[in-house]
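ATP-binding cassette domain-containing protein
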Amino acid sequence: MALPPLLHLRDIKLRLGSTQLLDGAEIAVAPGDRVALVGRNGSGKSTLLKIAAGIIDSDGGTRFIQPGATIRYLPQEPDLTGHATTGAYVMSGLGPGDDPHRARMLLEGLGLTGEEEPARLSGGEARRAALARALAPEPDILLLDEPTNHLDLPAIEWLEGELGQLRSALVLISHDRRFLERLSRAMVWLDRGTTRRLEQGFAQFESWRDQVLEAEEQEAHKLSRKIVREEHWLRYGVTARRKRNVKRLAGLQELRKRRKERVTAPGQVKMAAAEGDGSGTLVASAEGVNKRFGDQAPVVVDFSTRILRGDRVGIVGPNGAGKTTLLNMLTGVLQPDSGTIRLGTALQMVTMDQKRESLDPTTTLQSALTGGSGDVVRIGGEAKHVIGYMKDFLFLPEQARTPVGALSGGERGRLLLARALATPSNLLVLDEPTNDLDLETLDLLQELLADYGGTVIVVSHDRDFLDRVATNVIAYEGDGRWQDYAGGYSDMVAQRGRGVQARAIAAAAATAPRDTTAPEAPRAVARAKMSFKDKHALETLPDRIAQLEREMAALQKALADPNLYTKDPAGFAARTSLLAKKQAERDAAEEEWLRLEMLREELEKEA
């Protein structure tokens, strides 16, 4: 027997100006539900979530919440004004009986100390604080609008684990396919103002959506053919049966009205890159490159790679690891401290920056695409009217004079893509290109990059995007070390045995004892003998792990005191930071013990 819903939106209607944004939308959320809300950019997903959260009112329909049910909402752009620190912001969201220790642990897990000043936060840090505030009370329902935006891979995977073990019901809006696949159990598709529900996760959604759209196309075709038949009968049929004539004429008018009023499925983005002349075979070569800034830890240490024409290179790592620094050196924007960077010949590079800083918020959409010169865009040497090019990227003709600053995040992302792809190039450099793009636009971007004749270097936290696009991945290994792996993100994980880790964990793993034999020769490792250091580590690591777990348990017990934060905020913060450090050491020790144990088993098989 199905549980009654905690939250139920029924027949929700909302008009914005002349646009009927929502027209009969519905969402029901029962205890333990994991619902993903999907739809095109601009379809009204965020608006529907705000109605569910009680932030805005609808024009029509009903909103029901079970008495006593608690709801927490994560907006796309959290506002921390009025709070001295991130810790104060998170604590202010707690209710009577909520655990402040959990709030501090969530802040630590998301890479914050609680002492950050809101005015100095980046967009990603503000989102982390807002996530901690939403998750800390463990509400009955969590409404999360793009929770992975501006998070790095370690934080995304941490969030997946945290949400996976929560008892709260979830409603998620996200463009991250892997995130949706792992967390969703039901899908609500918002399309042309109405909703359809699938009682399966995201893995089955896209095939189901395509079947629905195909059925609509078939129905539209049948309707068109029926209109043709009725018009033919009206012109050439028997005229004596006047009553039936009138009835069929009325039926024909009804069919015409239905076709006229039928809202068609939205169009698709049409992308084509204006490719420049071919570059040389070698695009970029790095040999023994090193880079550091002042007295800070090194960003790049003894890194070498070769990028050839046609490669699709993904760069992955936690925030602050130096991905953009490495990207700038590989493209000649930044010089290394030592080592050599050699760029190929005849390069025509086009860059798309993640902060959208190259967009002037005061310029119009048309001027941003044409450079302020007329109303023509040149694509691959061919002239195209700017309005037609705008339509290819799902912009309306009346938006031509719209200031860039008035566009949504998704629209600004599409504008940057449109401008980048209109510029002749043989090297595309994309820094977080997937931010704010809907799933359909992501699909088409991936197809474009697959067909692009030049070279692509992309920094991304989107695992599915990297799997679909990258021919090789450069991953952060800790302490300024970077390693080149063949294949996409999943291939990199298979070769490393782990995904991208937070900087603290990567640093602990980098300093742990490890065998230096190249990973490409596992059989050679198996035939070798274990060193004394490896044997000693294999014997002593279990005791070290047990000791760390005892220390963690003691810290957790101390932090469980609900009065500790009030009495001794500095001591609370110090213990929380120490607990995170002990956890990183324990994880690195467990990983090293597992590697050595697998090596020992392999040696025993060879003996």
